Amino acid sequence: MVVTCHFVDSDWFLQKRILNFCYVPPPHSGVVISDALRKSFVEWGIEDKIFTITADNARPNNVAIRILKDEFELRGVLPIKGQLFHVRCCAHVTNLLVQVGIAEISVIIDLVRQGIKYLVASEGRFREFSAIAKQLHLPSKKLILDVPTRWNNTYMMLATAIQFKEVFPRYINMINVLSGL
Predict the structure, then answer these.
(1) Helix crossing, 59-75 with 30-44: angle to 10°?
(2) pLDDT in tens, 21-65
């Protein structure tokens, strides 16, 4: 686990620091995580200066932050009654939302992915596809095959594929004509 710190210095500039790389042994329970965070805070002498903790929505993180919040409250060092103590990681929340959206169009994504895999698996097929794209005066961009676990990569695959939306049906028609269908 990496513990980072963001703070505003005396000249009002935002500063960022990596405080610690912590080994968190399994099981990754809230107690184990809160202990690792507490140790980092104490090592840096900031155990009474924490305003907000940002973490993803994993259950152990929620438990760890609840434990720390209770401790801070008991010691009387919880700013603004802890209203901003636990801030959800925006990147994690965005990822969760995008994954729901991707699930809604997973059939389309799988078809595009399989089509691109089929084309790039053969130099001849890709050459024919590129020739059709050239006839249509499309940019000479390459098709991008995504890494399914990276949603931004899936977006790039779809954004590139849509530029070739007129090429795909013409390519399929050409294959059908050549195979006598």
Answers:
(1) 50
(2) 988 888 899 999 999 999 999 999 999 999 999 998 889 999 999
Task: Tell me if residue 150 falls in helix, strand or coil.
Answer: coil
pLDDT at 142: 87
Q: Quick one: CA torsion of 137, 139, 142, 145, rounded to 10 degrees?
A: -90
Residues of the chain with pLDDT under 50: none
- Hey, which residues does 86 pair with through a beta bridge? 53
Give the E-state strand segments of 69-175 in sequence order. 86-88
Parallel/antiparallel/unpaired status of strands 14-21 and 2-8? antiparallel
How far, CA to CA in Å, does 88 sit from each of 62, 91, 155, 167? 10, 9, 24, 43
Q: What is the pLDDT of residue 67?
A: 97
Beta-carbon contacts of residue 160 (< 8 Å; ≥ 6 apart): 141, 142, 143, 144
